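Q: Hi! First time doing this. I have a protein sequence and I read that you can turn it into a structure. Is that right? Here it is:
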Amino acid sequence: MRFEYIFQSSLDYTKKFCLENKFSYLMLILLIIFTGAADILLFIGSIEQFSFNGWLIWTALSIFLAIAFLIYGYLIRVCRDGTVVPGFKKPGNLFIDGIKSLIIYLCWIIPLLLFCLILSICFMPLTRFNIVGIALTLILVFIAVFLSIYLQFYCAMGIVRFSKTGKIREGLNYSALKKIIRTNGWIMYIGSMIILWVVYVIVYIAAIFLFILNFIVGIIIALILLPPLMVFCARYIGAVYEEGDRDNISQDYFFE
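A: Yes, that's right. Below is the predicted 3D structure, encoded as structure tokens:
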């Protein structure tokens, strides 16, 4: 796997997004602001003293989900093509693709939740406060964490595969996704994800530091940095997928 190429191509794509597609950049900033406003409404609606809290909660939740699906749909477009920075044409398609990506995510994560629930029901009586109980608890936690990371890897590649085919079933195609990951190699694949996590953590820590220094300035800088970070992460994951599928990238589905 070409780590340097993946990182540099994703960085170049992000620069192109910031400098050549200012409308999409501004749109993402606005959508993030609206998401924050919806969060504030949810908080106000949760305060029991307000008689209209139910109305506020449903309104805020509807706004939040609509915006979230639009953002996810845009990032799906970013995952698909590493040559052209997409716009916000046909927002209905963005919304639908955002919903489909959520369906794929839930299909990968629900088995983990069910597994953890079954383990809790079956083994909770055995996990008493003794050496055996503590050891069993640690083993179960380790298994749950391992499965979570394992399924998250497949989920990420599944969403990229969906972005390239437009088919939910392809996002859940375990055999095809396993082939993609094995082509890259598990060690190389994990290494590429660690690089992405490091970048994300560095930006996150920098944002927290700015919030501590000056709350208003921190918010402004966070709004400026968040869209490029989101685009970089989406394109990076798309590039990792493409490294394992160089000879068979689907061209069945095109965004306009």
